[in-house]
Amino acid sequence: FWGSQFWNSTETWYTTDPDFTPCFEQTALVWTPCAFYWVFVIFDFYYLKASLDRNIPWNKLNVSKALVNLGLLVITALDLIMALIKKGGDSELPLYDVDVWGPIIKFATFLLLFIFIPLNRKYGVQTTGCQFIFWFLLTVLSIPRCRTEVRLDAERQKVLDSQQPTEQDFSWEEYQFVSFFVFFTFTCIMLILNCFADGMPEQSKYKRGENEVPELSASFLSRITYQWFDRMALKGYRNPLEEKDLWDLRPQDSCSEVMPIFAHHWNQNVRKNYKGRARVEPKAQFSNGHVTFENPHGEKNGRKKGMASIMPPIYRSFGGVFLFGALMKLFTDVLTFAQPQVLSLIIGFVETQETDPQPEWKGIMFAVLLFVLAAAQTFILGQYFHRMFIVGLRIRTALINAIYRKALRISNSTKKESTVGEIVNLMAVDAQRFMELTTYLNMIWSAPLQIGLALYFLWQQLGPSVLAGLAVMIILIPVNGVIASRIKTYQIRQMKYKDERVKLMNEVLSGIKVLKLYAWEPSFEKQV
Asked: Is there a domain that residue 77 lies in?
């Protein structure tokens, strides 16, 4: 099936001149990027559906992408045809399955990428991360075969130079050499082209002006490195920033986009709280920081009240981005503990050089791997916090909007139950707490995972001594519980004081003329 051995540790690891087998280079190193894109292509479909823009005009960038991608399709189809011609039929060269399935898999992947070029143009998608990562992986993983092909060609030239010159057809090995380097050149070009974002769309749901945030038109590479923010940082370094220097809010984060989604799920949640279907629309009420509603069946069945939780609508509205951020957090935690393991390999490599010398390339590989892991963790962690702050901002926007709308619609009788201070605190304090909580909410599962991994790796280094640190953590759990309980009690009491203070300030400002006439300012000042 493969045509050669798939993996040979003697050639790859236990040697001073490491190299992969030809089979591994033509299968695993090529099929891995293809498998990655087929698995994560769902994100590209999601970007098409969620895009607020339409119709990017044809320009040099997307035309170049289409032409180079078309060239890859041609060279891949030619690989399949030449394999059938050169190695099929009466040829002495055996035709392996990898000679057929390799080009087919690559052709299917390049065809899918080629289809996305006009689709991205039509739906206004200027850049996609999945395609950039695919071309990056394909380029990097093609480098080992590039080295192999150069060495094999040099060996063939030596053999040909030692023989008498004869006229012969274009051999299969020569075709593979030329075909691969054409393929590798096109792959590098596609990687470079995907480092840039496409042009501005002609149609957009929202007006895109000169003051829009550059993140909207930034490429994937610019977004993960935050290169689009350099201009603002440089401006702030030279002069103090003013309000006019700030960019406009992203349309996806605006209230006009966030609130309809939240309101839809909120209305569904309210309706599900009714056990029976009623023709009369239930009257929702706002009281003591909760939304309640009357029984729609009328007074004859009794006035039963149900409670509508705010959490299910939040899950359904913003859960997708939050779960994606949680996945990034998982990768970050794994990379955090992978770095000490690589550092341990480096230490072991240095310590054993005198007693059991190892090839120098292993130490270089460990050092490069440590840098790659640290850089990957930095990139992923930055994107994690960025997304969590965006989710928190959207939750805060939705809650403030919902509370404000409800405050405008409640009846006069309900207004007597809910003070102005309570409503203001809900919008100013409680909604902000949701935003602050979102960033660190993943610590509920991340902290136990980090503790478990840390104890496991420390046990390998220290043995039973780790139990002392574990005992301290266990002892501190009830202490932290008591402290958190007291903090919660004080916060509840503090919120009541804030409500009373805001209510009193509202009364003072409303009746400031009376206070001035009777000279009551000192007494009310003491009360406040």
From this structure: yes
> Are 37 and 172 contained in the same domain?
yes
CA dist 72 and 145 (Å) reads 17
- pLDDT tens-digit map of 455-502: 999 998 888 898 898 899 889 989 999 999 999 999 888 888 888 888
The contacts of residue 454 (CB under 8 Å, 6+ apart) are 337
Q: pTM to 2 decimals? A: 0.80
Contact 128, 112 (CB under 8 A): no
CA separation, residue 123 to residues 46, 47, 48, 50 (Å): 11, 9, 6, 9
Total domain count, the chain: 4
Contacts (Cβ under 8 Å, ≥6 apart) of 74: none
Residue 225 shares a structural domain with residue 330: no
For residue range 293-346, what is the model confidence (pLDDT) as tens digits? 444 444 444 444 556 788 888 999 998 889 999 999 999 999 999 999 999 999
Domain span at residue 435 reads 310-463
Integer Cα distance of 288 and 418 in angstroms: 6
Three-class DSSP category at 286: strand
Long-range contacts of 324-329 (CB under 8 A, 24+ apart): 324/387, 325/384, 325/387, 325/388, 325/391, 325/442, 326/442, 326/445, 328/380, 328/381, 328/383, 328/384, 328/387, 329/384, 329/442, 329/446
With a CB cutoff of 8 Å and minimum separation 6, the contacts of 248 are 209, 211, 212, 213
Rounded Cα distance, 133 and 452, in Å? 31
Residues near 460 by Cβ (< 8 Å), separated by ≥ 6? Answer: none
